[in-house]
Amino acid sequence: MASLFDNTRGLDDIGEIYRRMEANCPNPASTSRKLWELRHATNISSHNTSEETMLERAVAILAARGHMQGWFNQCPTAIGRY
Please, what is the Cα angle at 47 between 45 and 48, to 5 degrees? Predict the structure, then answer.
Protein backbone atom coordinates (compact mmCIF):
# COMPACT_ATOMS: atom_id res chain seq x y z
CA MET A 1 0.00 0.00 0.00
CA ALA A 2 1.33 3.42 -0.92
CA SER A 3 2.20 5.79 1.88
CA LEU A 4 2.36 9.55 2.16
CA PHE A 5 6.00 9.10 3.23
CA ASP A 6 7.14 6.79 0.37
CA ASN A 7 10.59 7.77 -0.96
CA THR A 8 11.23 10.37 1.75
CA ARG A 9 13.64 8.32 3.89
CA GLY A 10 17.10 9.81 4.00
CA LEU A 11 16.10 13.18 2.56
CA ASP A 12 17.53 16.22 4.33
CA ASP A 13 15.82 19.00 2.35
CA ILE A 14 12.42 19.75 3.89
CA GLY A 15 11.25 21.25 0.61
CA GLU A 16 12.01 18.03 -1.25
CA ILE A 17 10.32 15.96 1.47
CA TYR A 18 7.20 18.12 1.12
CA ARG A 19 7.24 17.80 -2.70
CA ARG A 20 7.52 14.03 -2.46
CA MET A 21 4.71 13.82 0.08
CA GLU A 22 2.52 16.04 -2.07
CA ALA A 23 3.26 13.82 -5.11
CA ASN A 24 2.35 10.72 -3.07
CA CYS A 25 -1.07 12.17 -2.27
CA PRO A 26 -2.13 14.44 -5.14
CA ASN A 27 -5.87 14.15 -4.46
CA PRO A 28 -6.70 14.06 -0.74
CA ALA A 29 -9.99 12.38 0.14
CA SER A 30 -11.34 15.71 1.30
CA THR A 31 -10.09 19.25 1.63
CA SER A 32 -13.13 20.42 3.56
CA ARG A 33 -12.33 23.01 6.25
CA LYS A 34 -15.13 21.44 8.31
CA LEU A 35 -12.81 18.50 9.03
CA TRP A 36 -10.44 20.77 10.94
CA GLU A 37 -12.99 22.43 13.23
CA LEU A 38 -13.01 21.87 16.97
CA ARG A 39 -16.29 20.35 18.08
CA HIS A 40 -18.23 19.02 21.03
CA ALA A 41 -19.19 15.37 20.53
CA THR A 42 -21.86 14.96 23.19
CA ASN A 43 -23.79 11.88 22.13
CA ILE A 44 -23.32 8.85 24.39
CA SER A 45 -23.56 5.52 22.59
CA SER A 46 -24.78 2.42 24.36
CA HIS A 47 -21.88 0.42 22.86
CA ASN A 48 -19.14 2.64 24.27
CA THR A 49 -19.57 3.30 27.96
CA SER A 50 -15.93 3.23 29.04
CA GLU A 51 -15.01 5.57 31.88
CA GLU A 52 -12.75 7.56 29.55
CA THR A 53 -15.51 8.08 27.00
CA MET A 54 -18.06 9.00 29.64
CA LEU A 55 -15.68 11.60 31.13
CA GLU A 56 -14.89 12.98 27.67
CA ARG A 57 -18.58 13.34 26.85
CA ALA A 58 -19.35 14.93 30.25
CA VAL A 59 -16.68 17.57 29.58
CA ALA A 60 -18.14 18.17 26.10
CA ILE A 61 -21.66 18.54 27.48
CA LEU A 62 -20.51 21.05 30.11
CA ALA A 63 -18.51 22.96 27.51
CA ALA A 64 -21.39 23.00 25.03
CA ARG A 65 -23.61 24.46 27.78
CA GLY A 66 -21.10 27.26 28.42
CA HIS A 67 -19.62 25.98 31.70
CA MET A 68 -16.14 25.24 30.35
CA GLN A 69 -15.24 27.82 27.72
CA GLY A 70 -12.52 26.77 25.32
CA TRP A 71 -12.87 23.04 26.04
CA PHE A 72 -13.58 20.55 23.26
CA ASN A 73 -13.39 16.80 23.00
CA GLN A 74 -12.92 16.44 19.26
CA CYS A 75 -9.97 18.04 17.52
CA PRO A 76 -9.24 16.24 14.25
CA THR A 77 -5.91 16.80 12.60
CA ALA A 78 -6.36 14.89 9.33
CA ILE A 79 -8.72 12.53 7.63
CA GLY A 80 -8.78 10.53 4.46
CA ARG A 81 -6.90 7.76 2.71
CA TYR A 82 -3.34 8.12 1.51
Answer: 70
Q: Give the long-range contacts of residues 68-73, CB within 8 A, separation 24 or more.
A: 72/38, 72/39, 72/40, 73/40, 73/41
Helix (H) or strand (E) holding 22: helix 14-24
Query: What does the pLDDT look like over 25-67, one tens digit per residue?
Result: 766 665 666 666 777 788 888 887 888 888 888 888 998 899 9
Judgement on whether residues 52 and 71 belong to the same structural domain of the protein: yes
Report field, pTM of the whole predicted structure over 0.70: no
Q: Are 10 and 35 in a shared domain?
A: no
